[in-house]
């Protein structure tokens, strides 16, 4: 009896399950998706939902964030969406309805609950929440977060700051001359401008480097 042709004798190739996709390949997929497709991909299976926490949507234009009054969710508007839909986030905590946003850093928001002014950092996409000690009552606040290391820094207009690893708020000892006009944080340096001077506080090297008085 003649043998079967080789093509028929071979067993079919094994079927691959999408849920077993390696994490690094899964992240490459997520990083190419906009917010809408990103949210849909998360619902493929539990492993994709878990893998999505290591990535974020690829949006070229910032979204508009709306906080409905006395609600525990946000509404998101994508300027790139031709259908002009509003997307509702998941439940973000019972205290969100009594919270105000003090500062933002990409998809991270610095929130304060009223009237007790408890602070927390919230990631709008991954739902990660970081609770902070009670604030010093400052509403002109800076939020900085490193997306890779997840290091964070919060600075108030009274020069009180709280960073990852701290147990309480700390305050820069040197006082500024004149009333403060504004603050900018860039490259680990805080630029504080007053009516009389500009000072730079270096959070990597040392705390104080004074510029000549402004005229």
From TrEMBL:
Coiled-coil intervals, chain numbering: none
Signal peptide: none
One of the Pfam families matching this protein, by short name: Beta-prop_KIB1-4
Domain F-box, chain residue ranges per copy: 21-61
PANTHER family per UniProt: F-BOX DOMAIN-CONTAINING PROTEIN, OS07G0183000 PROTEIN-RELATED
Record-given protein name: F-box domain-containing protein
Organism of origin: Brassica cretica (Mustard)
